[in-house]
Amino acid sequence: MSIKTVGLILGGGAGTRLQPLTQDRAKPAVPIAGKYRLVDIPISNCINSGIRSIYLLTQFNSVSLHRHIQSTYIFDQFSPGFVRMLAAEQTPTSSIWFQGTADAVRQSMRHFMHGDPDFVVILSGDQLYRMDFSQVIKEHMERKADVTICTKPVPRREAGSLGIMHVDGKNKIVEFVEKPGDTPRLNELRAPMYKDERYLASMGIYIFNAGVLSDLLCGNDHPDFGKHIIPAAIHDCNVYSHIFEGYWKDIGTIGMFHDANLELTDLVPEFTFYDTAAPIYTHMRYLPPSKINCCDLNRCLLAEGCIISGHRILHSVVGLRAVIGEGTVIEHSVIMGADFFEHEKAGVSNDHIRLGIGRDCYIKNAIIDKNVRIGDSVYISPDGKQDGEQTAHYVVRDGVIVIPKGTVIPSGTRL
Question: Is pTM beyond 0.85 here?
Answer without folding.
Answer: yes
